[in-house]
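Aim 2 progress update. The chain analyzed this quarter is reproduced below.
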Amino acid sequence: MRKVIRRGRYPEVVFLITLSVCLWVIFVFYKNILGCVPGVITGIYVAKVYREKEKEKEKGLRRRELKDLLTAMETAVRAGESLNSAVLSAAKEMKGVYAKDQSFMEVLERMKRRIEMGETASDIMEDYTKWSGLSEAKSLSVIFRIAETTGGSTIRIMENSVDRISQKMEIDDEIEVLIREKKLELRLMILMPSLIILYLRLTNSEYIGVLYNSLFGAGLMTAALIANIAADVLGNRIISKVKMGRS
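Predicted structure tokens:
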């Protein structure tokens, strides 16, 4: 299976974000066409942050899909089905739950075809790992292969796998709430200088007029814009390190 990312209106959204940020920078920081270059650079940066955010959301969705898939497999195994048959049963059940996720539907269809062609559940899970990028799926492929070669208890393996992923998801969700709050605080801190400048422009334009009519003002505005971006980069790096520490 090759990795497929759900796109939908993704490129259009990225373009609109880049354009909107560019226009915001030009209007707030420069008030003339000279702001196009820093505006475009800032817009590209914000679009990149948006793409990273979408990837995180994608990964969270894949983790939930994997949990539901394993839960359905566990139910099938408890009913007396083999591991391979459980994959078929789970894939059929998931099609009714995630029908709107075309990418996942394609993966389920491939899983079904490959099982029908005689491939094992461990082989399927290895490809699922490549598609989803989940470390949990990689561990499961190893566990399934051990179970297939040693004849271990499939029911116990499924129970332990579902429990482990469920517990990890619960912890991840709790930490994600805290991280989301810090991200909101960071965004407000980054946006506040721009809002203050905009407020002064609208209420007392003469007070900050010098910032738009001289090279010194343009340099000062550019320095403020760079400081904003640098603060956002630093904040995102700190958050990323926190996430890496819990993964």
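The two ends are 25 Å apart (CA to CA). Helices lie at 10-30, 36-78, 83-97, 102-116, 121-132, 135-150, 154-203, 215-246. These observations will guide the mutagenesis experiments scheduled for the next reporting period.
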